[in-house]
Amino acid sequence: MTQQSKSHGRKSISANSQPRALMTQSPQLAGVWTAQILTLFPEAFPGVLGESLTGRALKDGKWALDTIDLRLFGEGKHRNVDDTPAGGGAGMVLKPNVAGAALDRALAQQKTPLPMVCLSPRGMPFTQAKARAWANAGGVTMLCGRVEGIDQRVIDHYQLEEISLGDFVLTGGEIAAQAMIDATVRLLPDILGNEASIAEESHMAGLLEHPHYTRPALWNGRSIPDVLQSGHHINIAKWRQEMSHKVTKEKRPDLWAAFQNALGEKDPKG
Questions:
Q1: Average pLDDT in the 134-161 region?
Q2: pTM
Q3: Are residues 156 and 215 in the same domain?
Q4: What whole-number distance in Å separates Cα of residue 74 and Cα of residue 80?
């Protein structure tokens, strides 16, 4: 028997052991941040999300993962989910009735409205700000595309926000989904051991993070900067801020320009 959706975390539903009523849906748990993933490859999840801090938090019920298998909404004996592009061309397009039925299932399972996302290389780039926005929502619903893409009518009808992991093309949205969920889940309360570290890391203030060092003090002729070994916390904080500015300016001039514009300042060094 085929399972229609698979939940990970505090509540797990199995088609082999649960009543039929539970086999048809995996409702979003009240108060628990939930990622709904619509995919042709539900077995790809939780993947790396099941490891380390995110995996421990998933097991402890601090967030939940619900996969919805697109194939189960396919047509015919072979449950076809895609067809050739209208007007001709290469690749295959996910059919609107298939994607629509899966999205309707996801909507029916939501306790509260969630951001609705379509993972696409033509979407807006995923950012730390977007991760924060999703973390402050009750979860997120992600439609993972494959091959050529998804029928535009689905995107328009459900007002899906198209989001991209970067300016490159993957074979599907599953890897991107896991990366975005990881970036978001780690911002939830009680996920990281030291939540103060979030405020200091890259992109949280529009800048890249300063360099890090640890023991041994001398390695391959390279030493830890003296200021970091001084014990002078004010000087250490000043050094880290200066290095954050320096690294951002050198590695990401676009971020540096945006940071300067946000402050209404010009770079005093040109």
A1: 94
A2: 0.83
A3: no
A4: 5
